[in-house]
Amino acid sequence: MSDWVGTFLLGAGAGILASAIAVLAWTRLRHRGARSPDAGRRADLAAKIAHELKNPIMSIKGLASTGTRLYESMSDEERLEFFRLIHAEATRLKLIADETSTALKIEAGGLTYDLRPEDLGKLVQEVAWRTPVGEHAMVVEVEDDLAVPLDRTRFAEVLTNLIDNASKFSPPDAPIEVRVHRGPNGGAVVEVADRGPGIPPEQRAAVFERFAAWRPAGYEDTPGAGLGLYISRAHLKAHGARIDIEEEPEMGTMLRVTLSGG
Question: What is the pTM of this model?
Answer without folding.
Answer: 0.72
